[in-house]
Amino acid sequence: MTTARDRPPEEAGEDTSFARGLRVLLTIADRGEIRADELSSLLETPLSTTYRYLRTLAEFGFVDRRGGGYRLGPRLLIGGGSTVSSEELIRRADPILAMLVEETGETAVISRRVGLAAVCLHQQPSKHALRVAMEPGSAAPLDVGPIAHVLLAYAPPDVQEEILGVTSDGGALRARLVVIAAEGNAIGEETPAPGIVTIAAPVLRDDGIVAALAVVAPSARATPAWRGRSTRVLADAAAAIGRALQPAGER
Questions:
Q1: Alpha carbon distances (Å) from 5 to 130, 134, 204
Q2: If we measure between CA atoms, which residue out of 192, 73, 80, 86 comes closest to residue 143?
Q3: Cα–Cα nearest to 213, from 159, 153, 131, 151
Q4: What is the pLDDT of residues 187-224, one digit of tens each?
Q5: Could you tell me the residue ranges of all domains in the chain?
Q6: Sheet holding 69-72, edge to edge
Q7: Residue 128: partners with Cβ closer than 8 Å, 6 or more residues away
Q8: Which pTM does this prediction carry?
Q9: CATH architecture, domain 86-244
Q10: What number of CA atoms fall less than 13 Å from residue 104's CA on the CB side?
């Protein structure tokens, strides 16, 4: 997350193995299910390379082969096994993100958990000249920042324990997760960078968490009044997205 509108050219040109693997995961999440040849064509990657990524991701339980297609694997299924795709999530969330920008004046973001990372799916930027921006596809560890902490607070116990087991101050993070689950939101100034305030809330369905919704602002504009009002608006917005994602007949 930065206040710059674009990454430096040298950074934008980077294409690591991790980034390519993440694009494979995000594309599968977007489509719900996809064949390897379709994935290869969409990502403009040789089919042999695509199969290599798919085999590696399958070994870790990140993807699962069903017949001729691939879908998210058991480690990435949301809540009780919901199959909400990123494409549907973005479509449902987009008008609500726009409303959040109008109501709070700041950038609105929606992210979801992919394995042990919080991945930004979509943003609606603030109309201020100086604003916080988060690039879709950017990822952060689940122990870093309010958005990640919300996703971790509602994650399955085995995911929580895996993160807590490698975090330097697992006791403090565990206590924070309890507070987040009780209050239904997280707010912080320490991450992702000094001078930025983030307020995040879970997007929930009956079968578990789907995503984290957040507003992010420069700390100079994040007055106590703004924080209080934005927290209330954010809770209503997250609930609205959750209702929109409920299976037909349960909304």
A1: 9, 9, 31
A2: 192
A3: 151
A4: 987 555 678 999 999 998 877 888 999 999 999 999 99
A5: 9-72, 86-244
A6: 34-35, 69-72, 63-66
A7: 105, 106, 221
A8: 0.69
A9: 2-Layer Sandwich (3.30)
A10: 38
